[in-house]
Amino acid sequence: MPEEKIKSAIENYVSANNRSQMIEKGSNKIILDAYNANPGSMVSAIQNFAKIKNDNKVLMLGAMSELGKESLHEHKLIINLIGEYKWKDVVLVGGDFLKINHPYLKFETTEKANAWFRKQDFKNSFILIKGSRSIGMEKVIE
């Protein structure tokens, strides 16, 4: 394949499958990464999102699935990491996030998180939405 075709394809690629998809809604920028989540990808996403220079950052995370007996521990580590940074809002949805005592908003379902989201008046905000496929975090912004 010619190098120019490869270069053009990469430069023009726009994600549309819930994998690090950038969505603009009004003055807000949403990173939708709701295809999958594991401890490593969750840590990377949070750390990279924290580097964005904006005081209006909203973190909306769905539980990580299929972690077995380590699940509760891994969710606690994510909550501890969240606490290392400043956020406008933090919303945690489902799974083991519900079993842990933390100061953040928590919802049992994405539908309830969506109801909260719709009531907010976000302006010039960056929003990260990430979670395991089984949680369906894309429903938060539908």
Describe this entry's structure for a reader.
There is one protein chain. The chain is of the alpha/beta class and 142 residues long. It has one domain (17-141): Mur ligase, C-terminal domain (Protein-Tyrosine Phosphatase, Chain A), CATH 3.90.190.20. The chain contains four helices and six strands, in the order αββαβαββαβ. It has helices spanning 3-11, 39-50, 71-82, 110-119; strands at residues 21-25, 28-33, 57-62, 89-93, 105-107, 126-130. A six-stranded mixed sheet has the order 1-2-6-3-4-5. Helix 2 (39-50) runs parallel beside helix 3 (71-82). 25% of the residues are buried. The model has no long low-confidence stretch (mean pLDDT 88).
Observed structural traits:
142 residues, alpha/beta, globular, Protein-Tyrosine Phosphatase, Chain A, 4 helices
Number of strands: 6
Q: Determine the CATH topology.
A: Protein-Tyrosine Phosphatase, Chain A
User: What structural class do you assign from the helix and strand content?
Assistant: alpha/beta
Overall 3D shape = globular
- What series of H and E elements makes up the topology? HEEHEHEEHE
Number of domains: 1
Q: Would you identify the regions where 5 or more consecutive residues have pLDDT less than 50?
A: none
Rg over CA atoms, rounded to whole Å, is 16 Å
CATH homologous superfamily placement: Mur ligase, C-terminal domain
**Level-1 CATH class name:** Alpha Beta
Helical content, roughly?
25-40%
Q: Please report which band the strand proportion falls in: under 5%, 5-15%, 15-25%, 25-35%, 35-45% or over 45%.
A: 15-25%
Distance between the termini: 39 Å
Biggest sheet features: 6 strands, mixed
Mean pLDDT: 88
